[in-house]
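Async update (no meeting this week)

Hi team, since we skipped the sync, here's where things stand on the single-chain job. The sequence we agreed to prioritize is pasted below, unchanged from the tracker. I ran it this morning and attached the output directly underneath so nobody has to dig for it. Comments welcome in thread, and please keep replies under the output.
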Amino acid sequence: MSETEGTGNPMRATMDIERSSEPERTASRLMSESDQERESRMSKMSRHSTFAPLMPTNSKYLTTFMLLNYMIGAGILNQPYVVKESGILGAFGGFALATYMTWKTVNFITDAGLKVDIYDYSELALHAFGTTGEKTIDFSITLSLFGALISYLIVIGGVLTSLLSSWGCTSEICSSNIVIIIAVCVFVAPLCLFRHFGHLAILSVFSVGAIWTVMFLVLFAGPSYQVPTDGNITIFNPAGTLRSLGSMIFALSICTGNFQAFVSTDKKSQNSKDWGTVTASAIGFGSTMCLGMGTAGYLYFRQDTDGVIINNFTAPAFDFFKVMIVMHLICYLPAAFVVMRYSVVKLTLGQISEKLPLALHTFVSLGLVAIITFVVIILQSSGLSSGSAFSLVLDLTGGVAGSLTSFILPSAIYLKMFPEEADGSNRFRRTEAQAIFYIGIILMITILFMSVHSVV
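Output:
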């Protein structure tokens, strides 16, 4: 028997061990590189930001207000017009569909994030579909919220101009474009300099309170107006329902801000069950508010219902409520802006917005505000009334970008990251995701066609 057999050669054994451990060392090195890349990626999330100590930790109740405010925004003001266009049954059916699908897709992306410990929407898409998925999410978020911010400034400018006119201001400074520029410079731009979504929680409480006062105005002051002569009630209008679904989706869109709110919530609420309760409360309450406002406003004003319901209240006694609308939007707008800026900075600079140096952060923020303001002025100068421009922006933004970010992409991420279990335990949920994915595509194409057709 040779020396290498039996008792073995110690040197040979050592060489064998070294050779056998080479793959492990290589794997370890690769894993280390992967961990470094992962750590770099994780730094994109708000809670890993350099400014993380500055982000407050909100309770789940305060987060519910924040999500509710982020969700309904100014879209609630358009809901009486939505009911006018779609009919009462069309509105109820559309909101039932949008509410259910929105809540399911929020759960889809939250569970996917918890599974891989990624709490960033576009980062999750990167994990599921690579760079293409990441850029698609960021581009869709940018498009969706850019349209949202335009619509909010349209309402702010329209309401303020109406107020100043009713107070006797006839000078050029009270014209719509000048009013918008002044409102942006004095009120909007400073609030858009906040770095973190979580900083806006207290503003959200005030914002939701302001919109409640307007909702009560519609519910209780509406009956004081005489029902128009053309007072027939539309029960169901299929074409109007399809066209208005974009506004319904827009009013309930929450996926784009889901993780921004999630990471600023206390740790004990960062789980699937508690977060499902938070989002269900926000979405359910928001949907109920939209339907209540929409149905009441339409029944009171019928065919005279404006695209921005507050425009139907012309008496001086209602000026306070118009001021509250403006305050609501000024407090709401920064939430959408912070989320949009995050995606814009990732797309254009390849950096994290929370980590930008102060000078660059200020330049980017004010530059984006200036671009949005410029587009609003162009729309106003084109001859569109504030109500019609508002409705058009909501239908297109909600129907196209909203369907992408709220239904199509979340369902695709879930289906990719949760293959069917061998025992079929998740088969029903995957079927739900598949159904929402295809419905989202159909809605996006249909709403786009109907909206463009109505303009043409």
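Quick observations from my side:
The chain is about 75% helix and 0% strand.
Residues 131-166 form the longest helix (36 residues).
Reply here if anything looks off.
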